[in-house]
């Protein structure tokens, strides 16, 4: 090829990246290719493999949002490259984060929402760990000020807590004190919480929406029991509310339920913006009732890019897209819009639960009347198939409905759980019911269960069995 040159001898042609032939292409799976390929080819390779994933809209296992409006997706795409931590470079994104904190503080009845203390996180798990760290540090400061040892902290919670709390206890050297399930009691109760508290207890975790069955733990009752404990013993033990899901349900559907900063004993609350906050993954929120609840020595003041930046997080760089989407949803829906969305979810959940209970083989554990989540089990006398057979049969039609056993002391109880989220309509609920009805005659003809807990898969989403005897460091 002849290359045209100008009078100075420089090329007049454009130099572009080489174009590779699309076929044949051999793509290594576990090693970096020696050479690149066309964007369309790379896209098609990845796209084709992802077809093997489940359909997110049919995923009734996850609590995470699987639907968003096009405008929210557009904003997220516009902000994907913005680093949330660079508050000097992206001051308006930081301002939107601050506004979201103030909105949540008002929603959860903070005494002075104008001076709310809180932050965004990558999800409710990180937010829960930040809450736990603040509890531990406050306890350590108090013990040291009294001249007492501060090396054996413990945290009281129900065995039904999400796995992040087991991780927190292990990572940050806190003894987890789990209240086991017993009989028909599937979560923490006031009397059982108090029984495990002592002078080394940094706090009690109350869950507003158990991942096992969707039920609320009695936060106000737990707080009252701890008030009584303090009056009798002098032990002042705070409460952290894990509102990963319920923190964005109860304010809109259960306004008379007292669970938040209206209770003086509630020191901190976490929630997941990408669950019933209606944002695509991943964003969470952690809030403290006041500055005293978050020890200042946990907050880092970083001289970053020419400015002072206070930060309290386990992660550093992360996209601002989800925070922007959270603010969009708050503006777009307002209080009434969130109320209508969550009411629809609960209506779908309670109707679907009632329909499933009416099929015959199933018995409800919960009915979706708190979180839009319900769990059900096999009725006594049904011995030709198991909940694990039902889960597998529904999966044949694309439905992801987890089956799992409950924790220690109730490992005899196996259940299915359905999480109803925004985007799972009455129409989709009818399609699920049709597929379940279609599967039942075949399941009834079996001579016995074909599957058990070993076939359950790994998609219980929070209903994992904890190890109450995990070796500690104390």
TrEMBL record:
The keyword Lyase applies. Residues 445-454 have a biased composition (Basic and acidic residues). Residues 445-474 are annotated as: Disordered. GO terms for molecular function: glutamate decarboxylase activity. It is an enzyme of class 4 (lyase). InterPro entries: Glutamate_decarboxylase, PyrdxlP-dep_de-COase, PyrdxlP-dep_Trfase, PyrdxlP-dep_Trfase_major. Keywords: Decarboxylase, Lyase, Pyridoxal phosphate. Its EC number is 4.1.1.15. It catalyses: L-glutamate + H(+) = 4-aminobutanoate + CO2. Its cofactor is pyridoxal 5'-phosphate. Belongs to the group II decarboxylase family. This is Glutamate decarboxylase.
């Amino acid at each position: 090829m002849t290359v045209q040159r100008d009078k100075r001898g420089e090329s007049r042609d454009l130099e572009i990246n080489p174009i590779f032939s699309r076929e044949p292409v051999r793509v290594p799976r576990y090693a970096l290719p020696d050479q690149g390929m066309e964007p369309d080819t790379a896209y098609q390779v990845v796209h084709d493999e992802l077809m093997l994933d489940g359909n997110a809209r049919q995923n009734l296992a996850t609590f995470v949002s699987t639907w968003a409006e096009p405008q929210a997706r557009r904003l997220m795409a516009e902000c994907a490259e913005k680093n949330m931590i660079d508050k000097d470079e992206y001051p308006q994104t930081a301002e939107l984060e601050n506004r979201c904190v103030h909105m949540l503080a008002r929603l959860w009845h903070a005494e002075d929402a104008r001076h709310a203390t809180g932050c965004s996180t990558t999800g409710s798990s990180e937010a829960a760990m930040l809450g736990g760290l603040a509890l531990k540090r406050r306890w350590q400061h108090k013990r040291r000020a009294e001249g007492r040892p501060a090396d054996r902290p413990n945290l009281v919670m129900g065995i039904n807590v999400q796995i992040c709390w087991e991780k927190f206890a292990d990572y940050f050297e806190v003894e987890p004190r789990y209240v086991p399930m017993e009989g028909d009691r599937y979560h923490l109760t006031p009397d059982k919480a108090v029984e495990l508290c002592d002078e080394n207890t940094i706090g009690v975790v109350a869950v507003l929406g158990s991942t096992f069955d969707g039920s609320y733990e009695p936060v106000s009752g737990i707080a009252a029991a701890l008030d009584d404990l303090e009056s009798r013993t002098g032990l002042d033990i705070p409460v952290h509310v894990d509102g990963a899901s319920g923190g964005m349900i109860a304010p809109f559907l259960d306004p008379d339920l007292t669970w938040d900063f209206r209770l003086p004993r509630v020191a901190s609350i976490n929630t997941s913006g990408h669950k019933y906050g209606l944002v695509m993954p991943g964003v969470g929120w952690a809030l403290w009732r006041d500055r005293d609840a978050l020890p200042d020595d946990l907050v880092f003041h970083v001289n970053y890019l020419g400015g002072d930046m206070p930060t309290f997080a386990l992660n550093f760089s992360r996209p601002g897209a989800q925070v922007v989407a959270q603010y969009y949803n708050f503006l777009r829906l307002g209080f009434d819009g969130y109320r209508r969305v969550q009411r629809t979810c609960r209506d779908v959940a309670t109707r679907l639960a009632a329909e499933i209970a009416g099929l015959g083989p199933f018995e409800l554990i919960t009915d979706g009347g708190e979180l839009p989540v319900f769990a059900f089990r096999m009725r006594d006398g049904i011995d030709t198939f198991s909940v694990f057979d039902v889960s597998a049969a529904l999966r044949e039609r694309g439905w992801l409905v987890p089956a799992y056993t409950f924790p220690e002391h109730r490992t005899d109880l196996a259940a299915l759980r359905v999480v109803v989220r925004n985007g799972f309509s009455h129409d989709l609920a009818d399609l699920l019911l049709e597929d379940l009805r279609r599967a039942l005659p075949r399941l009834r003809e079996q001579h016995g269960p074909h599957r058990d807990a070993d076939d359950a898969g790994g998609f219980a989403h929070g209903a994992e069995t904890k190890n109450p005897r995990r070796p500690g460091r104390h």
